[in-house]
Write a structure and sequence with these properties.
Chain lengths: 415, 242
């Protein structure tokens, strides 16, 4: 049976008005999906942008694409077994993560003061080397995102040298797992300090060259100055840390505010920005690298001799020759490997000034070799939470500059 | 400018974390416990989670805790109340940390948000909701953040197994055995210590039950996809690899 349908035919005037309304797109919003695999999102960050023309009206970051359940995994293994997982948090600065994690466990065990001075100096070297490495990559990719390809080649040449240093130090270029609870996996290899000093002398030359490419580069300055401005109060309210916080004029560095390791014996400056824009954050990272090199030189000058591990077989694995010949060391080795270190019940938080900001470990222990709850306070996660506030009002092309200046890593954001 | 003036004033007159904790305790003596110290860190236990935003606002405004470092949650599985919320506060002016803890029962599963005090609480609270299932009343945008929308479980709860869990909605949540799962060289996570997880000392019977359950799951998958990986079922009486 045929169905009857009423069709309304509007008159000519109404049709024209309707057509005009369609042509006039002003005020209509468009949704643009940026990422998760966009070169400027440095990993797998996805941002859903709502656009009015080219102006962003709303930004919704979607994270979690790199979630591996590190905190759950940590509850199911001994403290020592988790060290390799920390390599994979901020995978651009694994040495710094290693240092931060073992220092948190040492704080829980109450042995922070027992760690030998040589170990503490080497840990500072590790953390600062990681800072240079991370900032070099952040700088290179930042510059490339805003159109300066050459910088990337410069910084990667230098990073290659750091990787070579890491390789001879730890045996791995990327996943270092170098620190141990109460010490280090091994002492510095012979001749390593000379290589490091050579690198320190070379990298400052390269930094000067890199700066000539960017600091007064008209295009770079135009794309970054006055873009992504964060006020100091906003930065604190949103919990930013690291260079992103200091770029907004807040002078706060955990190495100065809560000195750990031997930072109180070393001289260095904490650079602070004034405008809080993308350009300030760039300048700040360049200066931080110079300060890190300064710290590395001081550490090499002051590096004391002596052991690198706590002389306690219940915390650090005893030397292999003694394990194979002495009964007590054999027992210590066996218990240490099978049950882990015997941590007391309690809870601690330790914050470490990582290249990206404050990397904190909150450990809740019920005693024994396994954490009951281990929370990783990752700087990238917190830093990114300001994006919904920061991005609206900017152009789409500014997103790239802002993300580059934030220097985040999704590995630690998603954990 | 006012703010920086305040910060410099606080820096000139150093206060200890204990003094700060005690003044917070004095203001809310009915719900805040005495400060407990461990490794130089102070913890205040708050008996009523509903009072959190008020206490946090005072800590921020009057005591200079302008920076919320982190919020996290603990699942005290088997105990009542089941969940504990842990807040880490820090003050840029005085450089002191303070930890606040409040319990949330499983039946209630809800606490008021502190996003009104610190904006950074937004994502932290979303993460706790996502991973532990504690809701935050008044939160502006309480959605899952790391897992995807519609995911049915809360993975950081203690009763959620490390290996994952099957769900009725395979297109939303799925977990299949890893290619070598149950094989002779794979340790089972979650045991008491490494001895009990080592493949050589596994108990054959328990192992067989677990293994056969996996094979069954694989059979389902085989039906669904026409292929299966990994070894076949094992007999209950078979001895372990060692």
């Amino acid at each position: 049976m045929a169905e009857l349908r009423e069709i309304e035919l509007p008159d000519a005037g109404a049709r024209i008005a309707q057509a005009e309304e369609l042509q006039d797109l002003h005020g209509e919003k468009m949704v643009l999906n940026m990422g998760p695999s966009h070169p400027a999102t440095h990993g797998v960050l996805r941002i859903v942008l709502e656009l009015d023309g080219e102006i962003i009206t709303k930004a919704t970051p979607e994270i979690g694409y790199l979630h591996r359940g590190d905190e759950k995994i940590a509850e199911n293994m001994t403290f020592t077994q988790f060290i390799p997982y920390t390599d994979r948090l901020d995978y651009l600065a694994p040495l710094a993560n290693n240092v931060a994690y073992v220092m948190a466990v040492e704080k829980l065990m109450g042995i922070s003061q027992q760690v030998p001075p040589r170990c503490q100096f080497i840990r500072v070297i590790c953390a600062e080397l990681a800072r240079v490495s991370s900032h070099l990559l952040g700088l290179g990719s930042y510059a490339m995102d805003v159109g300066a390809m050459t910088v990337f080649l410069h910084t990667f040449t230098e990073r290659e040298k750091i990787y070579n240093l890491c390789e001879s130090l730890t045996g791995a270029r990327f996943t270092t797992s170098y620190t141990r609870i109460g010490g280090l996996a091994r002492d510095l290899p012979p001749g390593w300090t000379d290589q490091l000093r050579k690198f320190c002398n070379e990298v400052v030359v390269d930094l000067d060259e890199t700066e000539t490419l960017l600091t007064r580069n008209r295009i770079f300055v135009d794309r970054t100055q006055g873009v992504g401005v964060i006020s100091g109060e906003e930065a604190i309210d949103y919990g930013l840390s690291g260079p992103n916080l200091r770029g907004s004029g807040i002078e706060h560095d955990l190495r100065k505010a809560q000195p750990y390791l031997v930072y109180d014996q070393l001289e260095f400056e904490v650079p602070v920005g004034t405008a809080g824009d993308c350009y300030d954050r760039y300048l700040l990272r360049i200066e931080e690298m110079r300060q890190s090199v300064r710290l590395l030189h001081q550490c090499l000058d002051k590096l004391p001799g002596g052991p690198v591990n706590v002389p306690d077989g219940k915390i650090v694995l005893p030397p292999k020759d003694r394990v194979l010949t002495k009964m007590e060391e054999l027992i210590h080795h066996f218990i240490n490997v099978t049950q882990g270190v015997n941590a007391p019940a309690g809870e601690i938080y330790f914050g470490h000034e990582n290249p990206k900001g404050e990397l904190g470990f909150y450990i809740n222990s019920k005693g024994g070799g396994t954490p009951y709850r281990l929370k990783i306070r990752s700087p990238s996660f917190v830093n990114l939470s300001i994006l919904p506030k920061l991005l609206p009002g900017h152009m789409v092309s500014d997103v790239v500059a802002i993300l580059g200046s934030f220097d985040f890593v999704m590995g630690e954001c998603d954990r | 400018m006012e703010k920086s003036g305040l910060i410099s004033l606080l820096t000139l007159t150093p206060v200890t974390a204990l003094e700060l904790a005690q003044s917070l305790k004095a203001k809310f003596s009915d719900v805040v416990s005495d400060p407990a110290e461990f490794r130089g860190e102070l913890t205040l236990k708050i008996s009523d989670a509903e009072r959190l935003p008020g206490i946090c606002a005072v800590a921020k405004k009057d005591l200079g805790f302008d920076y919320l470092v982190d919020i996290t949650s603990i699942d005290n599985y088997g105990d009542d109340p089941r969940f504990t919320l842990v807040y880490h506060l820090y003050g840029y002016g005085h450089g002191r940390y303070l930890r606040l803890k409040a319990d949330v029962s499983e039946e209630k599963g809800e606490a008021p948000t502190v996003t009104g005090v610190w904006r950074t609480a937004d994502w932290h609270e979303r993460e706790i909701y996502d991973m532990m299932g504690v809701r935050f009343r008044g939160h502006p945008d309480l959605r899952r953040i790391i897992m995807w929308p519609g995911y049915p479980y809360y993975p950081l709860r203690k009763d959620f197994p490390l290996a994952g869990r099957q769900s009725d909605a395979p297109e939303v949540a799925f977990s299949e055995p890893a290619p070598l799962a149950g094989g002779p060289f794979v340790t089972i996570a979650g045991g008491k210590d490494t001895i009990s997880r080592e493949p050589r000392v596994r108990i054959p019977e328990t192992d067989a039950i677990e293994m056969n359950a996996r094979v069954e799951r694989r059979q389902d998958l085989k039906g669904a996809r026409g292929q299966a990986h990994g070894p076949g079922p094992i007999d209950k009486g078979r001895k372990g690899a060692g």
